[in-house]
C-alpha cells in the first residue's frame, strides 16, 4: 500500500511539473505576455511578420501607384498616408468625435475606397484624377478579406515612426512667384527628376509619377519638348517663366480643352513649392528647358 501511495505521489508531482513547464513555455503568465517571451507570443510574432510581409506585397501591387512606395503620396494621383494619416488626419477625425479606432478607419478605407468625391483634399490645394476605388470583395473589389487585413496591418506598422518625422530646415519657395531664383543647374535638375537626389524637404521629386518625357500621357501631360513649346503657352511669359508658374501656381494658366483638370483646377497640386527651395526650383526649370 505504501508503495502505491509513493508511486501516486511521484506521478502527481511529475504531472504537476510537466503541466507547470508547459504553462511556463506557453506564455500565459502576465510577465510573458508583457515581455513577449512565451510560445504564444512567438507564434503571434511569426503570424504578424507574415501578415506584414503579405501586406507590403499587396500595397506595392495595388496601392503604391497612387500613394507611393512608402505611403509618401503621389501628387495628382493619391494623398500622403505616411505619416500624415497618423500625425494629422486621424487626430482631426478624433477631434470631430469619430467613434472608431485608427485601424478600423484604415481597414474601411482600404476595403470600401472613396467612391464619392470628397472636398477634403481639394480644400488643401490637391486634386486627384479619380476617386479611390473599392478593394474588398465585399464591395466588388479584387481583394479577399484576409488580404484587406494584411494590407491594413502593413499600413499600421508605419505608426511606430510616424509620430517623430524627421524635420528638415529649409526655405521653401512655396507659391511666391516674386522670389528671385538663383542660376539653375540642368544636371542637378535632371537628378531631381530621376530622384537621384532629394528635394530640400528630404522628399523625392514626384514629377515623373505623373509626367513622362517620351510623349506618353498619364495623370499629367508629357513634358517631351516642353522647353521648346512652353514659351508659346501663356501671353507675356517666356518658357522659363511659364514653367515656373506651372510648378508654383498650376491653376493660374489652364490650357483650353486640356483634360488634366477637375473642378476648374489643374490636377497639378499647388503645394509642390512647399517641398523645394529656390535652388531646387531653378534646377528643375533649367532641366526642363533642355527638353527641346
List the helices and strands and how they pair.
Blueprint: H1 2-26, H2 30-35, H3 39-67, H4 84-95, H5 102-112, H6 145-156, H7 159-162, H8 186-193, H9 207-210, H10 226-229, H11 239-248, E1 261-262, E2 265-266, H12 278-289
Antiparallel strand pairs: 1-2
Helix pairs in contact: 3-6, 5-6, 8-12, 11-12
In short:
This protein has 292 residues and is mainly alpha-helical. It has helices at residues 2-26, 30-35, 39-67, 84-95, 102-112, 145-156, 159-162, 186-193, 207-210, 226-229, 239-248, 278-289; strands spanning 261-262, 265-266. A hairpin with a 2-residue loop joins β1 and β2.
Describe this structure in words.
The protein has a two-stranded antiparallel ribbon with strand order 1-2. It is mainly α and 292 residues long. The protein has 2 domains: 44-162, Cytochrome Bc1 Complex, Chain D, domain 2, CATH 1.10.760; 186-289, Cytochrome c-like domain (Cytochrome Bc1 Complex, Chain D, domain 2, Orthogonal Bundle), CATH 1.10.760.10. A hairpin with a 2-residue loop joins strand 1 and strand 2 (265-266). Helix 3 (39-67) crosses helix 6 (145-156) and helix 11 (239-248) crosses helix 12 (278-289). The longest helix has 29 residues, at 39-67. Helices cover 47% and strands 1% of the residues. The protein is built from 12 helices and 2 strands.
Strand order across the biggest sheet? Answer: 1-2
Question: Remind me, CATH topology of the largest domain?
Answer: Cytochrome Bc1 Complex, Chain D, domain 2
Helix fraction?
Answer: 40-55%
Note the gap between the termini. 105 Å
Radius of gyration, in angstroms, nearest whole number:
27 Å
Give the CA-based shape. Answer: elongated
Average pLDDT figure: 83
How many domains, in number, for the residues? 2
Instruction: Please identify the top-level CATH class of the largest domain.
Output: Mainly Alpha
* Biggest sheet statistics: 2 strands, antiparallel
Ranges where pLDDT stays below 50 over 5 or more residues in a row are: none
Number of strands: 2
- Helix and strand pattern: HHHHHHHHHHHEEH
Strand content: under 5%
Q: What structural class do you assign from the helix and strand content?
A: mainly alpha
What is the CATH-assigned architecture of the largest domain?
Orthogonal Bundle
So how many helices? Answer: 12
Amino acid at each position: 500500500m505504501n508503495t502505491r501511495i509513493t508511486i501516486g505521489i511521484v506521478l502527481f508531482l511529475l504531472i504537476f511539473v510537466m503541466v507547470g513547464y508547459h504553462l511556463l513555455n506557453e506564455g500565459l503568465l502576465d510577465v510573458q505576455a508583457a515581455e513577449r517571451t512565451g510560445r504564444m507570443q512567438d507564434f503571434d510574432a511569426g503570424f504578424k511578420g507574415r501578415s506584414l510581409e503579405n501586406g507590403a506585397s499587396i500595397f506595392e501591387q495595388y496601392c503604391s501607384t497612387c500613394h507611393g512606395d512608402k505611403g509618401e503620396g503621389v501628387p495628382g494621383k493619391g494623398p500622403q498616408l505616411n505619416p500624415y494619416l497618423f500625425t494629422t488626419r486621424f487626430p482631426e477625425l478624433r477631434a470631430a468625435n469619430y467613434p472608431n479606432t485608427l485601424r478600423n478607419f484604415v481597414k474601411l478605407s482600404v476595403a470600401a475606397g472613396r467612391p464619392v468625391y470628397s472636398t477634403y483634399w481639394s480644400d488643401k490645394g490637391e486634386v486627384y484624377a479619380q476617386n479611390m476605388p473599392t478593394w474588398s470583395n465585399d464591395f466588388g473589389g479584387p481583394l479577399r478579406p484576409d488580404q484587406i487585413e494584411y494590407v491594413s496591418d502593413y499600413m499600421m506598422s508605419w505608426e511606430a515612426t510616424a509620430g517623430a518625422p524627421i524635420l528638415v530646415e529649409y526655405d521653401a519657395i512655396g507659391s511666391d512667384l516674386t522670389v528671385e531664383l538663383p542660376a539653375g543647374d540642368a544636371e542637378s535638375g535632371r537628378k531631381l527628376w530621376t530622384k537621384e537626389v532629394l528635394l530640400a524637404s528630404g522628399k523625392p521629386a514626384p514629377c515623373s509619377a505623373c509626367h513622362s518625357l517620351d510623349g506618353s500621357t498619364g495623370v499629367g501631360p508629357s513634358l517631351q519638348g516642353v522647353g521648346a513649346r512652353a514659351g508659346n503657352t501663356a501671353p507675356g511669359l517666356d518658357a522659363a517663366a511659364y514653367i515656373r508658374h506651372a510648378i508654383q501656381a498650376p491653376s493660374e494658366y489652364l490650357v483650353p480643352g486640356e483634360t488634366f483638370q477637375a473642378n476648374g483646377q489643374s490636377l497639378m497640386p499647388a503645394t509642390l513649392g512647399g517641398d523645394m527651395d529656390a535652388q531646387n526650383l531653378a534646377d528643375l526649370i533649367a532641366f526642363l528647358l533642355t527638353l527641346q
